[in-house]
Amino acid sequence: QVQVVESGGGLVQAGGSLRLSCTASGRPGVTYGMGWFRQAPGKEREFVAHIPWSGSPTHYADSVKGRFTISRDGAKNTVYLEMNSLKPEDTAVYYCAAGEYAPAWRYAERAGYDYWGQGTQVTVSS
C-alpha cells in the first residue's frame, strides 16, 4: 500500500516563506509523478504544482507562478514545495498526491493522481 506523507506547514506572516515536503512510499522501484493541491475553507481543492517522475517539465497554477517552486530529490519519491512571497490568500490545507496509473496529462486534476496525503495546514497572516 502506498503512503503519502506531507510535512512543513505552519503559520507565517505575509511576505514570508515556507517549505513543504512530501514522501510517497510503499512500492519499491516505482517512481511517481507528484503534485500539490490546496483547499481553503469553503472552497474546492485546487491544483498548485506538478512535477513528473523525470523531474521536468514542471507546471504551476497561475496564482502561484513565480512565487512557488516544486522540486524532487532525484529519482526518489520525495518532493518539495518552496513557497515565497506568501499571501493571506495562500492560506489552505496543502495536499500532496502521487500518480502511478492515472493519466499523467491530467496533472492539474484530482483524477491525475492515485494516492493522496492527509494534508498540512498553511496559514498566512496579514
What can you tell me about this protein's structure?
- This protein has strands at 3-7, 10-13, 18-25, 33-39, 46-51, 59-60, 68-72, 78-83, 92-99, 115-116, 120-125.
- By secondary structure, the protein is mostly beta strands.
- Strands 2, 4, 5, 6, 9, 10 and 11 form a 7-stranded mixed β-sheet that branches.
- A hairpin with a 5-residue loop joins strand 7 (68-72) and strand 8.
- The model has no long low-confidence stretch (mean pLDDT 95).
Brief summary of the model shown:
This protein is mostly beta strands and 126 residues long. The chain has strands at residues 3-7, 10-13, 18-25, 33-39, 46-51, 59-60, 68-72, 78-83, 92-99, 115-116, 120-125.
Alpha-beta classification: mainly beta
Order of helices and strands: EEEEEEEEEEE
> How much of the residues is beta strand, in percent?
over 45%
- Calculate the terminal CA-CA distance, rounded to whole Å: 40 Å
Mean pLDDT: 95
> Number of helix segments?
0
Q: Which of globular, elongated, flat, extended, rod-shaped describes the shape?
A: globular
Strand tally: 11
Amount of helix:
under 10%
Spatial extent as radius of gyration: 14 Å
Could you give a short account of the major beta sheet? Answer: 7 strands, mixed
Poorly predicted runs: none
